[in-house]
Design a protein that fits this description.
Blueprint lengths: L1 H35 L2 E2 L7 E2 L3 H9 L3 H31 L6 H13 L2 H11 L6 H8 L11 H28 L4 H9 L4 H28 L4 H6 L16 H11 L3 H27 L7
Antiparallel strand pairs: 1-2
Helix pairs in contact: 1-12, 2-12, 3-7, 3-9, 3-11, 4-7, 5-7, 7-9, 9-12, 11-12
């Protein structure tokens, strides 16, 4: 009996280190951040319990947070979600039987994703430079005056959207490409025998089969898009500029980091983090409802 009991406990002993590490580095920080959000908790000085005061302050009094969330939502549409309208057609083209060198295209499109975000942001800052940037040089070739991209509220969003699309399109393309390769070729052959053209073939077969993957990929984009920090931080000149002209590049995550590590208000920053978490949940719920209404989305 003792031997059998010992054998029954062995699996739990093997997985115990994982749960211990998860509790220390996963559960504890999450719970501690909830606790911090209920206090007027600064880098130094006394800690004062204020209940939901940080949440009320962020949502009603704070002059930057709502603007930061709006900027983030705009970039979510023009940067994070726009990628899918580019990535899916790219994946379909690369997956085509007529395209040679598929591995080359996979690598070429995926490289931006594994490139350092700070390095990418610095390169794009030079490309969008008012005086010697490549984009203004191209505009000058058509007789158009230089645009102060990084000194204009709209220009900043254009630059950030360009960075996000360039960096993450390849990641989404690889996700869709993997899903495309799991669709049986017999399905395409069947609709081709019925006289379906290319567009009808993909509407009837590809999109319904990819809808669960679309939900997954868009969910990742929503989570990542609501946490954009490095790109606006580098492009707009750091904490001192607070997102550049008109705070146009100030995102929710950018403001969270500013509040925590520049202003030193850890309790308020924790409240901001949880509000962002709730926004992400709501957006993913909208994503779920939208994909469920599409053909194949409710499967």
């Amino acid at each position: 009996m003792r031997v059998s009991r010992g054998k029954g406990r062995m699996p739990y002993l093997f997985i115990a280190p994982f749960f211990a590490l998860f509790a220390v580095f996963g559960v504890f920080p999450i719970g501690y951040s909830v606790l911090m959000s209920l206090f007027n908790w600064k880098m130094s000085g006394p800690v004062e319990f204020i209940g939901l005061g940080n949440y009320v302050n962020v949502l009603t009094v704070d002059p930057f947070f709502l603007s930061a969330v709006l900027n983030t939502l705009v970039l979510l549409l023009t940067g994070s979600l726009l990628q899918h309208f580019i990535a899916l057609p790219l994946a379909i083209v690369v997956n085509s039987r007529f395209v040679k060198g598929k591995e080359f295209f996979k690598t070429a499109y995926f490289l931006p994703y594994i490139t350092s975000t700070v390095a990418v942001a610095i390169i794009f800052a030079n490309l969008f430079d008012t005086n010697y940037g490549l984009f203004n040089w191209a505009l000058g070739a058509f007789g158009i005056e230089p645009v102060a991209w990084l000194a204009d509220p709209v220009g900043i969003k254009v630059a950030l959207s360009a960075v996000l699309n360039w960096k993450y399109v390849g990641w989404n393309m690889v996700i869709y490409l993997a899903a495309l390769q799991s669709i049986p070729a017999e399905l395409y052959e069947a609709v081709e025998m019925d006289g379906a053209g290319t567009i009808r073939k993909h509407l009837a077969i590809t999109l319904p089969h990819l809808m669960p993957v679309v939900f997954f990929a868009v969910s990742l984009s929503i989570i990542g898009g609501m946490q954009i920090f490095e790109e606006p931080f580098v492009l707009t000149g750091g904490y001192e500029n607070m997102g550049g002209e008109g705070n146009s590049g100030l995102t929710a995550a950018f403001y969270l980091m500013f509040t925590a590590f520049k202003a030193g208000r850890l309790g308020k920053a924790s409240a901001i983090a949880w509000i962002i978490f709730v926004v992400i949940l709501l957006l993913n719920r909208v994503n779920r409802l939208a994909t469920d209404r599409m053909p194949g989305g409710g499967d």
